[in-house]
């Protein structure tokens, strides 16, 4: 429950919704309870008038008694109608304030969570799966909303109604009130117990449903593999088994629900019978009027709904507390990467690594060891090495996706940790190894890093990334939709759109993380030529596997098992006859054999 205290700030923010809300709950309940007394009076009038009416048997006055009698009944009917209309009006206001407040809180929470998620570093996203992140921002927030809205509303409603009804019952007759309320604790306990059971079953069903949806989602994403390996029947079998578990759980829930409502009605019926029986005796003894019995029956029936709600509200609160705990777990996480500097500066592009080592915290893999190199402004540096040698890690460290464990990275002689990170990243064009394009138009994908952009700029970037001709061959050209709602680009086209996205920023530092692997050598040459022109005087870092890509670099760094084993120009490295020369020979041999 302590986790729900997090929400108090929202209650404070929306106090002018919740305070009138409580007021409307009280008023609507008063208008809901008073009709019971009116019914009581009406019944009393009926019993009294029937005897008066029979007294005038055979007299003309009987007609007058009859019309007065029907007139007063009509009046009571109208009064009850008016009271219920007023109750309805205030119920409307109650929902308009409390439920509306819950929607405001839901909106605020979602924004708060989304903003916080965005602040968290890359490591956080590695540790947690996307499904979990999404669940906390949607399903869990929804459960918390059920607490700040309906649960609170029904809890206040039940409490107010309870107090009012108990007050009126006891003020009429203590004995009858006690007997009427006798089955109520049993009802509360039964409802609580059954509700817990229903919740357990629902949770199981929900979990199974999530499992089923993830299974379907994954299998349909990999449909090509399934078809090529002819595993349709096998997958169908797994799906049918999982569905069977879901069906079994759902049927268990139906059984409990089917038993729930009849047993509840049975207990309410018991209360009514007790009211009539004990009430009847009290009438005979002259302690109450027959109208009071009718009044009590209305009370008992009015209590049923709130009591049922009580069990429901308890589970809503329990669920909300569990969800808020999960939300808080993430909200309390501090970003690993902190940048407190807010001054903006133009990056020149000098990069130095001073004895940098880095170990991935989650796997304990030491990806880089004692890295030292200097890169002057305007240089073109290439990084090469076997797979897993630490190339991408090095690129990520320059982007400050992670902080180094020891040593320092200097940008323009200033330690990277002390530089305004957003301002710094804004001046870098980074093309990651795993290309990611959004389900949006090609134009918006290219213009992603900029707030305002012209068509000419987009087209120029596409030309420089050697993808312009591909794009204009699509029917909708730059307005072509990508992803699930649109077309699928080839691997090489995706890489080039991703390169255009980096180039349009006119970055001070350009980082290509092995993003030319799916591009043919001729196109690669075209892109590199363009880069030579665009990046003139600016710094470029290219991670590559093909030596043809990097042989014109000012400096080539050869990584192996996280360490720099060689560095120099293409010619210098060939002269060394080390690993680089070996890689070069192998690649030449491969080309000749093709
Ligand atoms: N996010 C991560 N969390 C934990 N370990 C990682 C992570 N990324 C990479 N590693 C590990 O760090 C080492 C270096 O990986 P890195 O991706 O930098 O290599 P690479 O040279 O870019 O390889 P490739 O050429 O195959 O892309 C590898 O052993 C890898 O398993």
UniProtKB/TrEMBL annotation:
Pfam families: ABC_membrane, ABC_tran. One of its GO terms (cellular component) is plasma membrane. Residues 21-319 form the ABC transmembrane type-1 domain. Keywords: ATP-binding, Cell membrane, Membrane, Nucleotide-binding, Transmembrane, Transmembrane helix, Transport. It is found in: Cell membrane. The keyword Transit peptide does not apply. The chain crosses the membrane at residues 21-44, 64-86, 151-170, 176-194, 259-284, 296-317. Its main location: membrane. InterPro entries: AAA+_ATPase, ABC1_TM_dom, ABC1_TM_sf, ABC_transporter-like_ATP-bd, ABC_transporter-like_CS, P-loop_NTPase, Type_1_exporter. The keyword Metal-binding does not apply. It is a multi-pass membrane protein. GO terms for molecular function: ABC-type oligopeptide transporter activity; ATP binding; ATP hydrolysis activity. Residues 351-586 form the ABC transporter domain. This is ATP-binding cassette, subfamily B. It comes from Pedobacter insulae. The lineage of its organism: Bacteria, Pseudomonadati, Bacteroidota, Sphingobacteriia, Sphingobacteriales.
């Amino acid at each position: 429950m302590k986790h729900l205290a997090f929400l108090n700030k929202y209650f404070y923010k929306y106090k002018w919704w919740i305070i009138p809300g409580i007021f409307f709950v009280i008023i609507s309940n008063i208008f809901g309870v008073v009709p019971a007394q009116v019914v009581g009076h009406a019944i009393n009038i009926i019993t009294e008038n029937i005897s008066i009416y029979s007294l005038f048997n055979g007299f003309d006055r009987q007609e007058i008694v009859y019309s007065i009698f029907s007139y007063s009944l009509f009046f009571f009917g109208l009064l009850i109608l008016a009271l219920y209309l007023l109750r309805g009006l205030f119920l409307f206001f109650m929902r308009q304030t409390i439920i509306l407040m819950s929607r405001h809180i839901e909106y605020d929470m979602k924004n708060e969570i989304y903003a916080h998620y965005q602040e968290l570093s890359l490591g956080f996203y590695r540790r947690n799966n996307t499904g979990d992140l999404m669940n906390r921002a949607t399903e869990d927030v929804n459960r918390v909303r059920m607490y700040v809205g309906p649960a609170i509303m029904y809890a206040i409603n039940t409490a107010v109604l309870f107090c009012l009804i108990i007050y009126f019952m006891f003020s009429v007759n203590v004995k009858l009130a006690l007997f009427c309320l006798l089955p109520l604790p049993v009802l509360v306990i039964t409802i609580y117990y059954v509700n817990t059971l229903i919740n357990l079953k629902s949770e199981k069903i929900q979990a199974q449903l999530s499992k089923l949806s993830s299974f379907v989602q994954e299998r349909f994403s990999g449909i090509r593999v399934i078809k090529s390996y002819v595993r349709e029947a096998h997958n169908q079998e797994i799906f049918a088994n999982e569905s069977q578990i879901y069906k079994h759980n759902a049927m268990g829930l139906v059984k409990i629900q089917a038993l729930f409502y009849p047993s509840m009605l049975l207990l309410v019926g018991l209360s009514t019978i007790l009211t009539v029986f004990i009430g009847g005796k009290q009438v005979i003894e002259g302690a109450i009027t027959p109208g009071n019995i009718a009044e009590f029956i209305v009370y008992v029936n009015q209590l049923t709904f709130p009591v049922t709600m009580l069990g429901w509200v308890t589970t809503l609160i329990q669920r909300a507390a569990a969800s808020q705990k999960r939300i808080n777990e993430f909200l309390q996480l501090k970003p690993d990467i902190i940048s407190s500097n807010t001054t903006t500066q133009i990056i020149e592009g000098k990069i130095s690594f001073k004895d940098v080592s880095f170990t991935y915290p989650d796997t304990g893999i030491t990806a880089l060891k004692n890295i030292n190199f200097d890169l002057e402004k305007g240089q073109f540096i290439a990084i090469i090495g076997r797979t897993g040698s630490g190339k991408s890690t090095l690129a990520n460290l320059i982007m400050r996706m992670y902080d180094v464990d020891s040593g320092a990275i200097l940008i323009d002689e200033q330690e990277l940790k002390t530089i305004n990170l957003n301002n710094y990243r804004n001046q870098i064009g980074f093309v990651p190894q795993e290309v990611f394009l959004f389900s949006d138009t090609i134009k918006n994908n290219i213009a992603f890093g900029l707030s305002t952009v012209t068509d000419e700029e987009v087209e120029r970037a596409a030309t420089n990334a050697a993808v312009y001709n591909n794009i204009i061959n699509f029917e909708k050209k730059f307005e072509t939709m990508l992803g699930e709602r649109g077309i699928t680009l080839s691997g090489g086209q995706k890489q080039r759109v991703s390169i255009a996205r980096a180039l349009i920023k006119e970055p001070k530092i350009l980082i290509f993380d092995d993003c030319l692997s799916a591009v043919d050598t001729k196109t690669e040459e075209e892109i590199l030529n363009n880069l030579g022109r665009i990046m003139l005087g600016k710094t470029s870092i290219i991670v590559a596997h093909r030596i043809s890509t990097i042989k014109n670099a000012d400096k080539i760094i050869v990584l192996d098992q996280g360490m720099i084993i060689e560095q120099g120009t293409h010619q210098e490295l060939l002269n060394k006859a080390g690993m680089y020369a070996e890689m070069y020979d192998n690649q030449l041999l491969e080309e000749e054999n093709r």
